[in-house]
Design goal:
This protein is of the alpha/beta class. It folds into 2 domains: 235 residues, Aspartate Aminotransferase, domain 2; 127 residues, Aspartate Aminotransferase, domain 1 (Alpha-Beta Complex). Helix content is 39%, strand content 14%. It is built from 12 helices and 14 strands. The strands form 3 sheets. It has an 8-stranded mixed sheet, sandwiched between helices. Strands 9-11-14-12 form a 4-stranded antiparallel sheet. Strands 6-10 form a two-stranded antiparallel ribbon. Helix 2 packs parallel to helix 8 and helix 3 packs across helix 7. The longest helix has 32 residues. The radius of gyration is 21 Å and the shape is globular. It binds pyridoxal-5'-phosphate. The site of pyridoxal-5'-phosphate has 14 residues, from helix 3. GO terms for molecular function: pyridoxal phosphate binding; transaminase activity.
Length: 378
């Protein structure tokens, strides 16, 4: 059996270990510390935001974001349906309820027209949601302007889950920085990683300092331990922030490498019958965090699942596109607004190995394996 090719693996540069050594040398082995401060400052400069708080995960960042915009038990939050479960679980942590919204075809992200219509209908019956949670999937921005305009019309705060979209652009600016608050993830499979970590960003300095406060057990200013609110233990460790500082320095290279993977896949597989790649919408630049394609079984000769299994048999990891959250058993009682776009993408969609550290030989193996499935079936 040949070596396993994974979907997306960590890819360290030259600086990460130096920063980690510095944390050891100075004994800053704690949550908070100079690397955390520097990581936040450098992150702000990189994505173009004024304030950020480094936390232990993207999920934690979203939990804080939703709490800080005032989401409470019984509230409703509109949320993209085509996404990872962690986009929506923080809504439920607060006792609120997600309402899931379908995707458009140009970006695979939340459909602005559908949102606009849904908000107008909800306004009529006096049942507007308390927030809109917009996800930027697979390294591509959603069409933010019309979404933001729809939110502004009813004064609904926009929260952006840009966990998968660091390094992408929307009209020249990184998604995650347009709404009231945005979040990013540095989990092991993301475009850059701290092994685990997340970032909350906002132009509202008070909101971000409240995020830091809640992330460190909500300690009131007093020499003894005094608390008048419930907080969390969500701060990022100084050691991991050191890894993050190193990773920020190579982000542009990582984006370029992932886009190159995509280009090679597209050049070699784009002409196969029934294969279509995730489009790149004209309003931005995608990072191609994962290269995703859809397989039309009629034209290709076999379906997505058979392709996935054939590649798995050759020790190549691929994965179906996210199962829409409105189809998840745990959200069976949640409202869904939309048609069959996300469902279709889930049915036919496949994510290919996309790491920035894939070798040309790895890419070739994946490409040959897919071509072979097609040749056998047609
Ligand atoms: C990874 C991810 C998250 C969660 O981030 P963690 O750091 O793993 O908690 C949230 N939303 C999306 C879309 C993600 O891909």
């Amino acid at each position: 059996m040949e070596r396993k090719i994974l979907l997306s693996t960590p890819h360290m540069g030259d600086w990460e270990l130096e920063f980690v050594k510095e944390a050891f040398a100075t004994n800053w082995i704690a949550p908070v510390g100079p690397h955390v401060d520097a990581f936040e400052t450098e992150f702000c400069q990189l994505v173009g935001t004024s304030h950020s708080a480094a936390v232990s995960s993207g999920t934690a960042a979203l939990h804080l974001a939703l709490r800080l915009i005032g989401i409470q038990a019984g509230d409703e939050v509109f949320c993209s349906t085509l996404t990872f479960i962690a986009s929506a679980t923080p809504i439920t942590f607060l006792g609120a309820k997600p309402v899931f919204i379908d995707s458009d075809r140009i970006s695979w992200n939340l459909d602005p027209e559908l949102l606009s219509t849904a908000l107008a209908q909800r306004a009529k019956i006096g049942k507007l949601p308390k927030a809109v949670l917009l996800v930027h999937l697979y390294g591509q921005s959603a069409d933010i302007d019309p979404i933001l305009a729809a939110c502004d019309r009813y004064e609904i705060p926009l929260v952006e889950d840009a966990a998968e979209a660091l390094g992408a652009t929307y009209k020249g600016q990184n998604p995650g920085t347009f709404g009231r608050v945005g979040i990013y993830s540095f989990n092991g499979n993301k475009i850059i990683t701290t092994s685990g970590g997340g970032m909350l960003v906002s132009d509202d300095s008070e909101l971000v300092s409240q995020a830091r406060f809640l992330a460190t057990q909500a300690r009131d200013p007093a020499p003894h331990y005094q608390h008048s609110q419930i907080g969390y233990n969500y701060r990022l460790s100084n050691v991991l922030a050191g890894i993050g500082r190193g990773q920020l320095r190579v982000l542009a290279e990582r984006v370029a490498a992932r886009r190159r993977n995509f280009e090679i896949y597209q050049q070699t597989l784009g002409d196969l019958p029934g294969i279509e790649f995730m489009p790149e919408a004209s309003f931005g630049k995608a990072t191609r965090w994962l290269t995703c394609l859809t397989i039309d079984p009629e034209k290709f000769g076999t379906d997505r699942e058979q392709v996935r299994l054939a590649l798995a048999a050759q020790n190549i990891e691929t994965r179906p596109v996210w199962k829409p959250l409105h189809l998840q058993p745990v959200f069976a009682d949640c409202e869904y607004i939309g048609g069959k776009v996300a469902e279709g993408l889930f049915q036919d969609g496949l994510c290919l190995p996309s790491g920035s550290n894939l070798s040309d030989a790895d890419l070739k193996r994946v490409i040959q394996a897919i071509k072979r499935v097609n040749a056998v079936k047609t």
